[in-house]
User: Fold these one by one.
Assistant:
Number 1:
Amino acid sequence: MASTIPDPLPGPQGAQAALQDTDRPGRIEAHGIDHIPESERHGHPRELFSVWAAANVNYLSLVIGGALVLMGLNLWQAVAVTVVGNLFWLLPGLLATSGPAAGAPSEVITRAVYGVLGNRVNNAVGGWLVSVCYFALNLAAAATAAFALVEKAGITADTPVKVAVIVVIAALTLIISVYGHGLIIRLYLPITLVLAGAFTVVAFAVLRHADFSYAPAEQPGGVELWALLLAGTTMIASGPLSYTTSADFSRYLPRTASKKAIIGWNALGAFLPSVVVCSLGAFAATAVDMTDPQTALQELLPGWFVPVFLLALVLGTISINALTAYSAGLALQAVGLRVRRSVSVLFDGAVAVALTLYGLLVSNFLDTVSNALQVITVLIGPLMAVYATDVLLRRCRYDGLALSDETPGSPFWYTAGVNPAGALALVVGVTAAALCVNTLYTGPIAAALGGVDLSLPVGMVVAAALYALLMRKDRTLLAARAEA
């Protein structure tokens, strides 16, 4: 969508005026998927730490940590899987470097990978649909905590109250998303500090009761153990792999910002809280039944702190969903919907609220969405691998203005609007992953290996290798590598 912001005045004063107009916390962000000129760039890579930290202190991380123990792993195997799975946050960190290079969000940068028209399909499925599903699941998790908080206040959580709670949480989330990048950068540092304080209390309570020598009565071994370890790693890694949109939050940084700093602050901000919160879930599972994490954890916490804990769960989920809704809005624009970013965000929120209300109040729809996301893992791994490979092949050199050109004369139009290398690498990578998967169904390779699910490494390696092979003589890539 073309920017409606007038050209800035020359000199530092003009740049500052443009910055105030386009990325001020108290004003709705004007930019959508359009190019961010260098005169409007600002900030430091360290700001990314709190953005990703606030988004990763959340309820689902506790649930996943507890699930690792419930699956049959001992405590330290669960912790090891948590660490290994969260190392995948290095990939969103790498992708974030493309934001300042192009002055554009991920939803536009991937035109270099799939072509102008091919990228619309990528954004519709790998961007918008996945984001809305995650929004609905996270909103359901936050609503469950809020229902308990309402009950503690002496209010019966009947259907009208539940609807009101869901709408209020969604509204708070969408306010952050609509105001956009400037508010996210300003707000997420205090949110990180508040959540860190709350979860420090949770950590003390959990560690007091944890059994540090915990092991299941029947410990798995051999192929069964490897199957569990790989399944757990895939479950943890699905979080970072779903964030192929990390450039959305780094694109306002100056082009000269250190790439190492961008990778480091982005990855560290997500890695540290994810490891800590997931590990707390695993430690808690050695003392209480984490099949109902919210109720179980309340048994370990001081009574006065339970309402604070429930509020922290809601706040953490609002933080992660605000990022999800923000990127979903950009994805909808990149699909070709010619509306302002704020309007697309509100539309995404309305869809997610409808799915959540239907899932919590009418049917088991959210279970269906959760199951669909398990299968989507075969897609997000290759998506991440292809994008990361493109960043490396181009040495993170992107022409943001050329990427904004959607006409047939664009350098990234490729063949009929599609880059055959990106499309083929993704399709082959997803197919290879599907043959190895063992979630809702068992692929033939997984069956031959006794249930060991290699879909994540196989899908990513095949997609990355094929893309690198097919792009070796691409003129846009060679031009990028030839830049001084």
Number 2:
Amino acid sequence: MAVASGVPAELGLITGIVGGLITGFLPGSSLQVSGPAAGLTVLVYEAVEEYGVAALGVLVLISGLLQLAMGALGLGRWFRAISVAVVQGMLAGIGLVLIAGQLYALADAKAPSSGLDKIFGIPELIGDVAGSGDALKAVAVGVGTIAVLVLWPRFRQGAKVLPAPLAAVALATAATAIFDLPIARVEVKGLLDAVQPPGGSEFAALAEVGVIGTVLAFTLIASAESLFSAAAVDRLHDGARTDYNKELMAQGAGNAVCGVLGALPMTAVIVRSAANVQAGAKTKASRVLHGVWLLIFAVLFPAALGIIPVATLAGVLVYSGWKLIPTKDLVPLWRTHRGEAIILIVTAGAIVITNMFEGVIIGLLMAVAKTAWETSHVHVEVSGREDGDGNGDGDKPLYVRVRGNATFLRLPKLLDELEGLPREREVELDLTGLRHVDHACEMALATWTERHNAVVKRDAAVETQVPA
């Protein structure tokens, strides 16, 4: 994420360390892992291009302080109202984007920026790999890593001693070193040299309107991604549920520290969190240790990180991305709850086409529209169709009672039923049986009744003026 944002990779490591040691230690979520925010890559890139790397610390610091305030005000709990289909769609969309992007890293190739470009570029990538011996070797290492991840859990004794991801990385790294394969390795430099605390001139830039807009964008997107991810992580385990307000404050504290250090903004990362759950994590210590291990390897053993093949890490991420896609649940969901399945598919597709934040918003809007459609049931009851209810008075108005929930979604149906009433009889419309009626529907019904009765009176007046 750091490289894609146009900043040194070490800034991403600092954010990951802070995410473990600060955010991971604070109350909120028990198993959610925080780190560099992939969803903010484009925004960070644009901010760095516009204001420079030095200004990044101020942007992240103020965003963190705003998150702390939002959590203290209790705004985090509003993110609990998330449809299950949207959460599953979010996981599937992230999994698809992750797989598409890491296929390039699997071949030591540079990935396009957008999700669609990554997918459409795969045929060209396959052609490039087929014509390059070094790329084929990198792919072989990545595929071997995936194979170990799939097969290792079957060796129960080995799986108890060494988790599958660690075994896969260790074996792939050893094979790369033994055969001296010419493939890319992870590059890490000193962390202290990358720390860039913001100065007075950077704080002065907060007076600019564009900077304030960027800060608000950082705050809203980082908060939404973290709390959307928390909802998804809670579905992956049976442990303690997330306290959304406390988690929002924990994210804010982490971002404030990252801002002071001049590092990248932080969110909860669903891929790392899912991997944490899949590895058997049970307590908050797992997300703290994420930062501890990053700190140990980045500070004490930077050379150890430098021998790990990039293709190996890409293989781990491809496997993690596949695990996020609900392949087993989609067909049964389509058979039993087709509307929910459509929301899932559209959410996933929107994330691939746009980004995680916008994709989730599209999914939420669809879920709201679906709920509104399903709950807005209306029934029209008509009395007096026979001549005056059997009393011989054919001029008596029809009594029309509408019951249920009348919204603009059901307005066409309502008007069709009303249009089917006898045109020579006035209508007395009763809306007291409605549990809910929105303004658009109420106005439309009142207008229709007024016009209908006016036409009936006009026709009746014309008939009385025509001689027999």
Number 3:
Amino acid sequence: MKYLAMIAALMFASSAFAVDCVDCHEAINVEEHAEMEANIETCNDCHSFADAHELDADLHTPDLTITECADCHGVD
């Protein structure tokens, strides 16, 4: 059972890290956006994020911060 949980955690981590935003987009100034307290809703309001990206609502809540995005997706 312990190994199954470890494998599931590794699968999740590898799927999240597989999407690196800077592969398609210019680097985002995470520090500037963190000062503005940007979250996913802010991205959508300013940049129409939802028009081009479909997010898994179970993992990506509207209050997810830009710092948390950068931790998984390499946006800085």
